[in-house]
From TrEMBL:
Residues 79-158 form the tRNA-splicing endonuclease subunit Sen54 N-terminal domain. It comes from Candolleomyces aberdarensis. Residues 1-36, 353-387 are annotated as: Disordered. One of its GO terms (cellular component) is tRNA-intron endonuclease complex. Belongs to the SEN54 family. Residues 19-33 have a biased composition (Acidic residues). This is tRNA-splicing endonuclease subunit Sen54 N-terminal domain-containing protein. Residues 377-387 have a biased composition (Low complexity). One of its GO terms (biological process) is tRNA-type intron splice site recognition and cleavage. It comes from the Eukaryota.
Length: 452
């Protein structure tokens, strides 16, 4: 609280001080607490308030009457705002039935924008009016998906009572009942649901890594970074290997000459290969770890969620390879991952391509735009008979004509950026009493760069 409000005097403050104070108050509105008084009278639906300045500074001897009045007025405005009725349009309300024995929610009526990336189809046996059982596909939700929709107020869910009624009667499940019924089903913990809910609110598409049932869609495998090699390429490798073996015979007599001869024979004997040959300590992640103790118990560091960016074209029945994979742990009960646990995680992850260097814009780009349009180039000449014959042979024997690479300027990879990004990456979400922290662990390869 400003001292001038408690101890008034007759001295007028200069105009510069008042302007400076207004600027400080405007800057404090962004860094202070919530100003609930600006929300009176309360609207029909809650509105996120703007951050305002602090009501007062705490004092050792207690606050003044003005401080107590401002605090009580702000507290009353907060209660009035929180008492506002939460409304949702009936056009986006979905309806579902919770089956405890299946740990699934059947979406009888699916509405809204969430279902293109949530839920999966599963055949279940139902009984018709004549008492005959038959399979019928229906849309089912996992426990975390159902709790997320119930908590948002976009789904009314009823618990299955053992009999199938014509209509949905009774009172739907509350949020507290949904938490108590669904948390703990299908390996779902409170920490995993908090991570799921947080990522869904950010716009990501979140799915399970390990399918909980045979009907749950599995993400496509990661593409292998193996270049396509034609028959001519295999033949070239064979000739190079034969030449290297012949050169190795001459290397037995005089081992100084290969440094000069191998440049002609296309061998792999260079100074780098010589230094690697005398290395007596294995390097790289291909060497397995030496585990002398007993096998560890089941580790909590298991991949649980697949994460897709909001811009990823996602098909629910055939999901693409995930952009990220997330491990969820409880920070209060789980220690830091060991080297063996990280190695096990990296063992199931694909290798990422090195990051591309930044593209530098040419300095004369603006000058080229200011130039007038040049006349159109002359039309390309008609294809010759030889070219037509080559295209015909290419269609008949595509294996003999490998696709030529486009003549593009090769850009060198920045080794520091590649070492920072790593070859493999995993994200660990540590939840500490509701506070979620994301940690990225990467597997680098220092021995693969010339500087190593």
């Amino acid at each position: 609280m400003d001292e001038s409000l408690e101890l008034p005097n007759a001295h007028a403050r200069p105009l510069a001080d008042s302007v400076q104070e207004d600027n400080e108050q405007s800057s404090d509105e962004e860094d202070g607490g919530l100003d609930w008084t600006k929300l009176l009278p309360a609207a029909l639906r809650p509105v996120i308030p703007k951050r305002g300045e602090k009501e007062y500074e705490p004092r050792m001897a207690g606050g003044s009457n003005l401080q107590v009045h401002v605090l009580e007025r702000s507290r009353a405005a907060m209660f009035e705002t929180l008492k506002a009725t939460r409304t949702t349009s009936s056009k986006v309300i979905s309806y579902g039935i919770w089956y405890p024995d299946l740990s699934r929610v059947e979406a009888t009526v699916a509405r809204g924008i969430h279902f293109p990336s949530m839920g999966h189809s599963a055949p279940r046996s139902v009984m018709d009016e004549d008492g005959v059982e038959h399979l019928q596909k229906r849309l089912e939700l996992l426990p975390e998906e159902a709790i997320y929709l119930i908590e948002r107020g976009t789904m009314f869910c009823w618990k299955e009572l053992g009999i199938r009624l014509e209509g949905l009667g009774g009172v739907p499940m509350t949020v507290q009942q949904a938490y108590s019924e669904m948390i703990g089903k299908e390996d779902l913990t409170l920490e995993k649901f908090q991570v799921y809910s947080y990522l869904k609110r950010l716009g990501y598409v979140v799915t399970r890594t390990r399918p909980p049932s045979e009907h749950y869609p599995i993400a496509a495998p990661f593409p292998l970074n193996t270049p396509h090699t034609s028959i001519l390429g295999h033949l070239r490798r064979f000739i190079e290997g034969l030449a290297a073996s012949l050169v190795g015979v001459f290397n037995r007599f005089d081992w100084w000459h290969p440094l000069r001869i191998n440049r002609i024979c296309l061998s792999n004997k260079t100074y780098g290969s010589l230094y690697r040959s005398i290395r007596f300590i294995h390097s790289g992640h291909s060497v397995p770890l030496n585990s002398s103790g007993p096998p560890p118990p089941s580790s909590p560091y298991q991949i649980f969620y697949n994460l897709y960016k909001p811009s990823t074209p996602f098909k629910k029945s055939n999901p693409p390879p995930p952009d990220f994979q997330i491990v969820v742990v409880n920070a209060r009960t789980t220690p830091m991952p060991t080297l063996q646990e990280l190695s096990d995680l990296f063992g199931v992850l694909p290798e990422l391509p090195p990051p591309l260097p930044r593209q530098k814009r040419p300095a004369n780009n603006a000058q080229e735009q200011s130039k007038p349009d040049e006349p159109a180039k002359a039309a390309s000449p008609a294809p010759s008979p030889t070219t037509a014959e080559q295209s015909f042979l290419r269609r008949l024997f595509p294996w003999a004509f490998p696709t030529p690479l486009q003549a593009t300027k090769e850009q060198k990879v920045n080794p520091f950026m590649a070492l920072k990004a790593g070859k493999k990456m995993i994200i660990i979400a540590a939840v500490d009493s509701g506070n979620i922290s994301f940690f990225r662990f990467s597997e680098g390869a220092f021995c693969e760069w010339p500087m190593a």
